[in-house]
Amino acid sequence: xxxxxxxxxxxxxxxxxxxxxxxxxxxxxxxxxxxxxxxxxxxxxxxxxxxxxxxxxxxxxxxxxxxxxxxxxxxxxxxxxxxxxxxxxxxxxxxxxxxxxxxxxxxxxxxxxxxxxxxxxxxxxxxxxxxxxxxxxxxxxxxxxxxxxxxxxxxxxxxxxxxxxxxxxxxxxxxxxxxxxxxxxxxxxxxxxxxxxxxxxxxxxxxxxxxxxxxxxxxxxxxxxxxxxxxxxxxxxxxxxxxxxxxxxxxxxxxxxxxxxxxxxxxxxxxxxxxxxxxxxxxxxxxxxxxxxxxxxxxxxxxxxxxxxxxxxxxxxxxxxxxxxxxxxxxxxxxxxxxxxxxxxxxxxxxxxxxxxxxxxxxxxxxxxxxxxxxxxxxxxxxxxxxxxxxxxxxxxxxxxxxxxxxxxxxxxxxxxxxxxxxxxxxxxxxxxxxxxxxxxxx
Amino acid sequence: xxxxxxxxxxxxxxxxxxxxxxxxxxxxxxxxxxxxxxxxxxxxxxxxxxxxxxxxxxxxxxxxxxxxxxxxxxxxxxxxxxxxxxxxxxxxxxxxxxxxxxxxxxxxxxxxxxxxxxxxxxxxxxxxxxxxxxxxxxxxxxxxxxxxxxxxxxxxxxxxxxxxxxxxxxxxxxxxxxxxxxxxxxxxxxxxxxxxxxxxxxxxxxxxxxxxxxxxxxxxxxxxxxxxxxxxxxxxxxxxxxxxxxxxxxxxxxxxxxxxxxxxxxxxxxxxxxxxxxxxxxxxxxxxxxxxxxxxxxxxxxxxxxxxxxxxxxxxxxxxxxxxxxxxxxxxxxxxxxxxxxxxxxxxxxxxxxxxxxxxxxxxxxxxxxxxxxxxxxxxxxxxxxxxxxxxxxxxxxxxxxxxxxxxxxxxxxxxxxxxxxxxxxxxxxxxxxxxxxxxxxx
Lengths: 443, 443
What we know:
With about 450 residues, the first copy, chain A, is α+β, with helices and mostly antiparallel strands. The first copy, chain A, has helices spanning about 20-40, 55-70, 85-100, 140-155, 170-180, 185-195, 195-200, 200-210, 215-225, 230-240, 245-265, 330-340, 360-375, 385-395, 405-410, 430-440, and strands spanning about 45, 50-55, 70-75, 80, 105-115, 125-135, 160-170, 270-275, 285-295, 305-310, 320-325, 350-355, 380, 400-405, 415-420, 425-430.
C-alpha cells in the first residue's frame, strides 16, 4: 500500500448483528443445553449446507417464503439460495440419505438461517434454529418423547414456571367431520389459531366470511375452548362422539401421552391439554405442541412442533412420517433476559490470575493449569500492569475470583485468593488453592 | 396441489456436502473440545454474520480471494457477500466494538465460511474455521499462551505424537537486515516457505530469479535450516549477531516461551524451534506456529497462527496488535480418520431401551430417565417390534448396551442389561442398573 489508504467503514448489514461475548455466552449456553438434552435422548447431530439449489428451497415454501429467500447466481451460474429454515433442507436430506440410514431416524440440527424479512419488529435477517425430530415411525412413543424432551430442555435451562400445551390434530379433524367442515378445514384452523388473541365472536365472524354458518362453527369452537381437567375433557369428548374414529384415535394418543408423563413422575401441571391450538399450517397431522412461560405468556411459544405425515413428499415417493419440535433460540434468550436469568458476563473464565512480573510467567501459567485440571476456567492477565488495573479488568469482564502472587507470596509458595464480589481475600498454599476457590465459588 | 406433482431431485451443490450423524458426531466432538479448551483459558465466544457488505470482505483479501467470494445483490440491491474466513469479519468487529469492550480482548469464533474454490483436490466450498486470538497487547505472555493452548487442545483431542513448530518473524527480519535483503523480504519469505518441499537449491534458484545473489540468500537459508537443540541454536544466533536488535528481541521472546513451557512441566519435545517457517503472507510480524502430527506430517499443519501488528488497519486508525491461531477442523478430522481415532457411530446414545409392548411405555421412559440422571445417553426404541430387530438397529447405530424388559421382567421389577459388543447379558433390579451399565461401559 502506498500513501494513506481510505478507511472502510466497519458496519454490518441492516437486520444483521454481531454477537459480542455478552450476547454470545448466553446463546452458547442455550445451544449447549439443547445439544446435551437432545443427545441424552439419542437424537444424533446432522447438518446440511447453508447454500442449496434454489429449486430445493422454493419447492414447498409458497410465495411468501420465496420473497424472503436470499437467492442469486453463483460463479458457475447456478441458481442458488441460502436456507430460510432447517426443515426444507432436512426434507431434501431425508429423501437422499434415509434409504441408507434406515428408520427410525432421530436427529437434531442447529444453525443459522437467513430471511430477508422486514426488520421493523426487532426481527433479524439471520437467526438460529434448533430442531429435533424422529422420522420414519408413526408410533405414539415418538410423540410422547417430544413432550418429555421439551420438558427436560426447559428444566435444564433453569426454568420452572412453564406449560407445554398439547393437542392432536385428529381431534380437530374429527370435530370438522362431525360439523361437515372437512373441506373448509384450512379456513377453520386458521381462524381457530386466532381464538386466544381475538376471542370467539371475531373468529365466528371470520368463519362466516368463508361461508361457514355460526351454529356449525360453534360446535368446533366450543369444544376447542373447553376448560377443565384433561381426563374430564377427553371423557366428555369420547362420550359425545363415540363412533368417530379419527377423533377417538386422537383421544387415545393424548391419553397415552398424559399417562406416560404421570408414570415418569413429572409435574402434571406443566403438561396441559389445549384443544384450541391448531398451528395454522396444513403441515401438521397429529400431536401438536406449544410451550409458554407462565410469567411471559405474551412473548409466544418458545418451543413448538408436531407430527406430520409426509416430510419429503416434494423429493421422494417414500412416505416419511415424523414428529419433532423447534426451540426458538432468540425468543428464549429475549425471555431469559426479561426474567433476569442471564448473567452479565463478558468472559467464560471464573478466575483471573494476575501478573506481577513477566519473569514469573511460568509460575502463573503453571498455577492456572493446575486450577484448570480441577475444572475451573482460568485466564492469566497477559501484562504486568498495576494490580488495580488488572482487578478492574476482572470486574468489568465478570471474573469472580482473582489469584494474586507478588515476589513475597511466590517466595513462600503462597497464593492470595481474592473474591471479587465479596471483596475478601485469603492466602493459600498451592495444594489448597483449588479447594478454596471451589468454596468461594459455591458460597 | 392437484394431480401428481413432479418430484424435485434431492441433490446438493457441487463442493457442498451433507453431514449425516456418522460425519457430524466426530465434528461436534472436535468443536466441543476446542470450545472447552478455549473457554478454560478465558477466551470468550463471539460471532459475526455470514453476510457482510462486499467491500468489508474484499477490502484486504487481494484479487485471489475476490474471485472466490460468493457475492451478490440482496433484496435491497446492496452489494453483499458471504464471509470467506473468520479473520476479516473479526477485524471489522474489532474496529467497531473494541473501543467499548476494551483490551486485552480474548475471543474464539467457530463457524462455516464459503469459498467458490476449485473442488478438484477434495476441497469443499463450505467448511468450518475455529480461531482464537488475544487482541490489544504486544505482551509475549499472549504469544506463549497460544502455544500452551494448541498443546492442550491436541492432548484433549487424544493426540500424543505431534509437534508445534515455532519461529519468530523478528529473527527472519533480523537475518534479512544482516543480509541487506529487507526490501526483498516478501520474495525471500515466499521462497523460504517452500524449503521443506523443494530443497535448498531450488529455493536459491527462485531467489536468484528475483535478483538475490546466492551468497546473500545462503546467509538466511542456512540459519533457517539450522538443526540442533533449541537453546544451542539460539545461543549460536545470539553470538553471531550480538548487536542486531530485531533478531535479539526475537530470540528473547522465543527463549521466554520455551522457559515457560518447561516450568509448566510440558513435554519439551512437542515444542520445536523451526527457524524455517515463515508462513508466506505479509500478515505475521512476530511469533509463528505450525502444528504437525508426527504420523501424518504430509497432511500439513493442523493448527497454525502467529502474531500480527495491526488487525484492523483497513477499518480503523486504532492499532490493534494481536496473536492467535486457527484449528483446521476438516484437516484434523481427515487426520483422525486416517489414524483410526474416529469411532464409527451413528448415534450419541450409549444405551437402547427396547420396547415389548406400548402399554409399558411409561416404565421404559421412566427407566431411561433414571439412567440419564446418572449421565448416560439413552434412547427408547419407539415401536414394539421384534426384539431381534431392535437389537439389530442398536448394532447398526452403535449403541453399546441394550436394556430389555418384557412382561416377566417387569412383573418382578427386573431389567436385563445386554452388552452388544461382548454379547453377554445379566438381570438387575432398578437400583443396580446404572451401576451395572457403568461397569459394562468401562470394561
